[in-house]
Amino acid sequence: MQEIVLFGIVGSTYLMVIAKRIPALIRSFRYQSLCLFLTTLLVALREQTIDLYIVAFLLFVLKVIVIPHFLYRIIKKTKVSEDLGLFINAQMSLLWALGLTYLSWLFAGRLSTSPNGTGPIMLAVAFFVVLTGTFLMIFRMTALAQVIGLLVMENGLFLLAATISGGMPFFVEIAIFFDVFVSVLIMGFFVYRINKFFTHIDVNKLSRLKG
Amino acid sequence: MQIFIILGIPILLAGLTAFIRNHKSAGILNCVGYLAVLIASGILLKNSVCSSAPVAFFYFIYLDTLSAFFIFVISVVVFAAALYSIGYIDNDVEKGTITRQKAKTYYILFNLFCASMFFVPAVNNCGMLWVAIEMTTLISAFLVGFYNTKKSVEAAWKYIIICSVGIIFALLGTILFSYADSLLEGTNTLNWTDMIANASRMDKNILKIAFIFILVGYGTKAGLAPMHTWLPDAHSQAVAPISALLSGVLLKTALYAILRFGLIVINGVGFSYFGNLLVLFGIISLVISGGFILVQKDLKRLLAYSSIEHMGIISIGFGLGTPLTIAGALLHVFNHAVTKSFMFFGAGNIVSTYKKHNIKALRGVIKTLPFTGIMTLLGMFALTGFPPFSIFVSEILIILGAFLKGSYGIATTLLLFLSIIFGSFIFNYGKMLFGNLPKELKKQSEPLSGKLAFLFLFFQISFGAVVFLLFQKDLLCFARKLFQV
Question: Domain locations in chain B?
Answer without folding.
Answer: 270-485
